Amino acid sequence: MNLKDNIKKKEIITITGSVICFFLFVLSTKYTGINLDYIVNFQNYLIKFMMIGASKMTMETALLVAVSSFMRILFALVLLVAGFAVLSSYGFLENNRIVGLIVSLISALFMLVIFGFSITSIFMSLGLIISCMLIVPLTNTYGKELKRWILFRSGSHSISTALIIFNIMISLGIFLAISINTSYYQSSMKADFSAAMEEITMSELSNAGDIPESYRETLNEQVKQKTSDFISNSPMMQSLIKFLPVTVAFSAWAFLELLRMLILPNIGGIINYVLIRIKRSRI
Fold it and tell me: In the chain, where do the E strands start and end?
């Protein structure tokens, strides 16, 4: 096998492996129910869980349930990082930006087809395209400049930069999508928050003593009215609803950035290290 065939083989393997990882990321995000409605109302789920669910569990069980609610998000993001790591391991050895471009265009097309051509998916696709195009030359540059832990740090640094771009684009997409459909998402948030507060209140009243069945329906109506009045008259709730595009986009960005700073680049660095060692052993 000559050098030209070897380069072609490396590029085909890189494109295939990276596209598969991004495709699995898109599928896991789509079919585990992580969408804009889920993001908007996630805080309501946390409130309901802390007020009702956690009170009926031991501390260990409550912690396990709370952590598991984040696992599907983390699992999807690890697949995204794996796709970046496949590209970064290639970029460490070869500085061919076309590979990143091909991967990004194929993966972005998958994303748009599966998610639909929504504002959020368009911005996610743009973030993926920019990140994939940058990660190959970035890793190549880091590989030449770094002096210690080169294999790990070249991947972790370049993947961290790619995630910064991706996180910003997702947050912008969330902001614009909610801003354009503000009335829908405000109504969705009000309805979900009302349902959560009604369930919390009825649970607390039931714990305080048995409620006669004949009075339960009347009490439920009173709780609904009080909840509606609270949402309408509370300055805090009105501010939250008014600035919903900003608060949701910022919360999503802050959460993604927390994972980027603490976990994801390290996972990417490890994958990058392993892949480069495997590739070197076969050259």
Answer: none
As a whole number of angstroms, the distance between CA 172 and CA 176 comes to 6
Tell me the per-residue pLDDT of 149-180, one tens digit each, with 9 for 90 and over. 999 999 999 999 999 999 999 999 989 988 88
Residue type, 114: I
Residue 184: which H helix or E strand, with range? helix 182-208
Q: How far apart are CA 246 and CA 172, in angstroms?
A: 10
Element (H, E) at 214: helix 213-233
Hey, what amino acid is at 82?
A
- Tokens 């030209």 belong to 4
Query: Which residue's structure tokens are 């959020």?
Result: 120
Structurally, the chain folds into a number of domains equal to: 1
Give the pTM: 0.80
Give the separation between CA 267 and CA 277, rounded to whole angstroms.
16
Compute CA distances 80 → 20, 26, 138, 228, 250, whole Å: 10, 9, 17, 41, 21
Structure tokens at 140: 């190549």
Q: Give residue-wise pLDDT tens across range 100-127.
A: 999 999 999 999 998 888 888 899 999 9
Contact criterion met (CB below 8 Å) for 111 and 125: yes
**Structural domain for 201, as ranges:** 3-282
Burial of 29 (0-12, 13-18, 19+ CB in 10 A): buried
